[in-house]
Amino acid sequence: MKRLLLMAGLAAVTCVAAAGAVSVAPAAAAAPHGQTITETFHQHGTWTESGDTDFCTGADVSPTFTGNEVEHDTYFTNSDEFWFTFTEEGTATFTSADGLTYSGRVTVWAGGNANERNANQTFTASFRLYATDASGVVHTEVGHQVAHVAWNAVDEAPVVSFEKMFATCG
Known about the structure:
Blueprint: H1 2-30, E1 36-48, E2 52-53, E3 60-61, E4 64-76, E5 82-95, E6 101-114, E7 118-132, E8 138-152, E9 160-169
Antiparallel strand pairs: 1-4, 2-3, 4-5, 5-6, 6-7, 7-8, 8-9
């Protein structure tokens, strides 16, 4: 799940950047010099992720999400300055390596911005998943993750970077 949550956040950041890159050219041609453009995207329904990792076992999993996502992007038409935020919430289900089917709630948020002097991205996620084995024992995976990265105009390496992950497996 750790990789799931981190990759969800990084994928959203990549999608934001790609969406901005694709939509900047047509918007810039139509917009006056220096105007900002804001776009909002919504996703509702069910989708499956691949290449994620179960926090408790380290095994690869492909969780299925049912939920909602909203993303807001704002950028200037004549520069590389932008802001974004997204929130994804809903239920997730996956089958672990030992055959247990976990399901429960997942919430993910990310935001970031960049300009000519600095940039930052912050990501946070929470999950609470349960599975019941054949003997009726309930297994849990509960956790919270937060990560932040910041850059300045001088250094290529991040000037601030941290990731904290708390998980309980039982």
